[in-house]
Amino acid sequence: MTAKPRIKLPEAMKVGETIEVKALVRHPMERGYRKDAQGKTIPRNIIHTFTADLDGARVFDAEFGTGVAANPFMSFYLRVSQPGILKLTWIDDTGVKIEAERQLNVVA
Question: 0.70 exceeded by the pTM?
């Protein structure tokens, strides 16, 4: 689970343009229903929260349940209001926080 998230953004964008942000994070998303070789239930450990902030302002958030597959892929649209740093954050049941940042390449 130490792999960096993969984030795809357009190489360049203009203020006012709507872009698609795509992100994939590596995570087993254990739902808490399976049993290990000894018959013990494997504890639930899913990513329950995803957020996207542009220069500290929340632009997107989502809450996940047990129906989400391993290595969840997110895709959302963002209207570019300014150049800045887009910070994506995933939080799982054990408190692990996976973060990634990308600069928005805004051109005139």
Answer: yes
